[in-house]
Amino acid sequence: MAWVTQTLSSSLGRKVIMSLTGLFLSSFLIIHMAGNLQLFKGDGGRAFNEYTYFMTHNPLIMTVSYLLYTSILVHALMAFILTRYNQSSRPVKYAYSRPEANSDWSSRNMGILGTVLLLFIIIHMRTFWYEMHFGSVPMAEYDGKEYKDLYSVVQAAFGELWYVVLYVICMVAVGYHLAHGFQSGFQTLGIRHRKYTPIIEFLGKYFFAIIIPAAFASMPIYVYLQVHHII
Amino acid sequence: MKINLKVWRQKSSNAAGKLVEYQLDNVSEDMSFLEMFDVLNDSLTRKGEDPVTFDHDCREGICGMCSMYINGRPHGPQTGATTCQLHMRSFSDGDTIVVEPWRARAFPVIKDLMVDRTAFDRVIQAGGYVSVNTGSAPDANEILIPRSIADEAMDAAACIGCGACVAACKNASAMLFVSAKVSQLAILPQGKAEHKERAERMVAQMDAEGFGACSFTGACSVECPKSISLDHIARMNREYLGAQLTTENVQG
Questions:
Q1: Which of B97, B107, B138, B243 meets the CB 3.0–4.6 Å disulfide criterion with B142?
Q2: Predicted-complex ipTM score
Q3: Residue A188 sits in which domain range?
Q4: CB B168 to CB A93 under 8 A?
Q5: What is the CATH number of the domain that holds A18?
Q6: Domain ranges of chain B
Q7: Count of C-beta atoms within a 10 Å radius of residue B86
């Protein structure tokens, strides 16, 4: 099996690991966003609580969630390894360099954007995931069945202005990360074609870099405005 | 025109280097960038100082020897051109121009602006060839190659191996160079026979030389004097992954 480790530890193999985990995480964002749209239902959180109950009890989704946690860790760890490796490839830096003349800022700063996202994921999981699994969440009852009222946790968190601002800033980072990351993932796998690459680029630049982060950012803003009776 | 230069001076590969300032008062805007350096070196020699060492050969943009990092960009502000094709009319009177060597672990500085690019030669030696005996020139159209394939192979073959891609890349990655060579041979019938082993060996050598990984910033293609396309990098990724997954070679 030496060839497997040899392939995966080559510079191209490491990028393939980044690509596969990254594209998997991108696909997760679609599900996560679609599910969280329940927050907009205006039914006091019932649809959202039923949705979170489903997400934490369906065996298939629970299995995929472990794959998701692993992907986040592998993506971050491999990014760290690659960044160190890439930095060592140029031990003496240029005294004067103008990278902005030949490349996008986001493409050169995926590591910084990724670090912001990792910190965000930690904060995000502490606030919701940890509370849902290990915290003391109040209960809500619909049709005689007990549900954990995660909606109340959402309201408490997004009722804080600084928390809303933090979320919106982090969603901007998601946008820039995916503007480069989504299409790069395909390039790494060698998927580049005159017919399909424009579609992939369009999806990356508009759907993953603008629509998804905007939809996520609208959630804390909406809940904040609702909690404070502004809308 | 008057030009202020800040040039990287380094006595040998082990010595510490630094940027040294020079002033040239009578630079013609019709001079090429290298001719401007000839004038500088002439004045340094007359003063008994050590002239600036830099690589150059054909001075018409086809040999790939010239290699200066000018004002923060490989081969200077022009696109699709080498340093020898850059003329002083691209600059203004009184400009300060910073000139550095390519910076990469795999390209150690030999002296001043001259770097050792034999890492590229070793990558080519690892697989950038066709090892079957091709014999005498075949008759025209004996081997049919579609026009689009011929054009694409020719675009890849335009790579002059100057190393601007490595110099431009934030990771000092050689992906554009190596992929141009892999691509050129992989899509032609003569090169197809060995395409898997070629991709495996050339990538392994590229990694062994200490070039970085590809972040797909696209800087290499923008700065390439021959405007080699990023399509070739995708093709090499495909070639390499396909080869690793399907060859019988399990040695690693």
A1: B138
A2: 0.93
A3: 2-86+105-227
A4: no
A5: 1.20.1300.10
A6: 3-103, 117-246
A7: 23
Give the other-Cβ count within 10 Å of B30's Cβ: 9
What does R_g of chain A's alpha carbons equal in angstroms? 20
Q: Does domain B117-246 have CATH number 1.10.1060.10?
A: yes
Sheet with B3-9, strands from edge to edge, namely B18-24, B3-9, B96-100, B69-70, B73-74
B173–chain A Cβ distance below 8 A for any pair:
yes
Task: Report chain B's terminal Cα–Cα distance, integer Å.
Answer: 58
B130: left (phi over 0), alpha (psi -120 to 50) or beta: beta
Report the DSSP pairing between strands A145-148 and A139-142. Answer: antiparallel
**A194 CA to chain B: closest CA distance, Å?**
10
Average pLDDT over residues A210-217: 98
Residue type, B213: A
Q: How many domains does chain A have?
A: 1
**Which amino acid makes up residue B138?**
P
CATH for the B3-103 domain, from 3.10.450.60, 3.10.20.30, 1.10.150.650, 2.60.40.1120:
3.10.20.30
Q: What is the pLDDT of residue B170?
A: 98
B139: pLDDT confidence band, cut at 50, 70 and 90?
A: confident
Mean pLDDT of B229-247: 96
Min distance B136 CA to chain A CA atoms (Å): 36
Using the beta-carbon criterion (under 8 Å), do B234 and A191 form an inter-chain contact?
Answer: yes
Query: Which of A152-161, B47-56, B141-150 bottoms out in mean pLDDT, i.e. has the lowest?
Result: B141-150
pTM reported for the whole predicted model: 0.95
Residue to substitute from B69, B165, B244, interface A, most A β-carbons within 10 A? B244
What residue of A is the nearest CA neighbor of B100? A94
pLDDT value, residue B252: 53
